[in-house]
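SAMPLE LOG
Freezer: B-3
Tube label: C17
Construct: single chain, 227 aa
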Amino acid sequence: MASKGQCAFCFDVLVAHFEDRSPLPLVTFEKADSVEISELASASSSSLSSVDTVSFSNVATTSHKSQSSYPVFVTWNVVVRGQPRLRGCIGTFEPQALERGLRTYAQTAAFDDTRFNPILAKELYSLECGVSLLTDFEEATGPLDWEWGVHGIRISFTVGGRRYSATYLPDVPPEHFDSKEQTLESLVRKAGFSGVSWRTLSIKLVRYKASKSSLSYAEYVAMKESI
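STRUCTURE (predicted):
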């Protein structure tokens, strides 16, 4: 579901902001993505044996993607010496018409993530964009009822009449933590709670999966030049 074309659209939203213009439509980048995939698919069978064909599975539905609705998160990383560092990540669990949702959260993640200063035009060349489309929401039986590296988790709990909530996408725990327990401890702090351990809280946990794609700025430029 998530595609490089969607990531390229998010980049164009960001570039358009700095250039004071409207971004190109999402379908323009989805078509460019499909053309690139179609060219690979028409290669000789010997060449195809080395290509990850899983990424081609949604080519047939490209023209319909921009009309679909999903909960969506957009992540911006800055790549330093080959290592990505989080620069902003914001999204929503409410299904969004894909083009509108990507446009909204590409900008919000870039400029309104309060953990970071707004992204500057001079940073564009070092950015990487990730798009996550969320699926398969399930209420867990407890805080540890989720699969490492497979599920994203969203927790909520109430203390003193105040409700707290926070989420980590599926790729976050394996990249930053050593265990589910450590992940939950961090997530409770991310929610803004600084009190006792997560084990003493009445945590409601919803698990979900995500289809994710990512794209570098250089890849965006190359895709746009092909349009």
